[in-house]
Amino acid sequence: MFGLKRRPSPSRGAVVPPYMRELYRLHAGHQLGARLERAASRANTVRSFHHDEALEELPETSRKTARRFFFNLTSIPNEESVTSAELQIFREQVQEAFENNSSYHHRINIYEIIKPATAASKDPVTRLLDTRWLTLSYTGSRKWPTVLDGQLSP
């Protein structure tokens, strides 16, 4: 079934992301938001990826505020195309911004890595997919859908 040779046996510590539970409820017949229904209607497979902490070490930089989160999509078969992606971030407010009544923001750039960094070139070749701004006084989860129309290569 589903091209699997045997039934998967998830580990006891496996955590099912809330988004995947929402999708299950949608397909089980429960009504959810229109945004989730549109995303689910265009796909026949849904995958969830956690960021790969091993790839996130930044070389020494003058800007200490930069953070990188990598999601390894190489497990997606070449014959499949990615039609949309969604980045979900949970963060707590930066207390100093709240106390100073400031409107500081974090800029979040979402890139596709076209070609990884090599010994000859220290920076990867990337393509900017989306840019969003996050107010530092915000606490909670944010979702940024990125419609790709099959452009993202696994």
What labels would you give this structure?
two-stranded antiparallel sheet; 154 residues; globular; alpha+beta
Q: Would you kindly provide a brief summary of this structure?
A:
The chain is 15% helix and 29% strand. It has helices at 18-27, 34-41, 95-99, and strands at residues 82-91, 105-115, 125-135, 140-152.
Note down, in words, how this protein is organized:
The longest helix has 10 residues, at 18-27. The chain has helices at residues 18-27, 34-41, 95-99; strands spanning 82-91, 105-115, 125-135, 140-152. By secondary structure, the protein is of the alpha+beta class. The strands form 2 sheets. A two-stranded antiparallel sheet has the order 1-4. Strands 2-3 form a two-stranded antiparallel sheet. The model has no long low-confidence stretch (mean pLDDT 70). Residues 1-139 form the TGF-beta propeptide domain.
List the helices and strands and how they pair.
Layout: H1 18-27, H2 34-41, E1 82-91, H3 95-99, E2 105-115, E3 125-135, E4 140-152
Antiparallel strand pairs: 1-4, 2-3
Our count of helices gives 3
Radius of gyration: 18 Å
**Mean pLDDT level:** 70
* Largest sheet, spatial ordering of strands: 1-4
Provide the domain count: 2
User: What structural category arises from helix and sheet content?
Assistant: alpha+beta
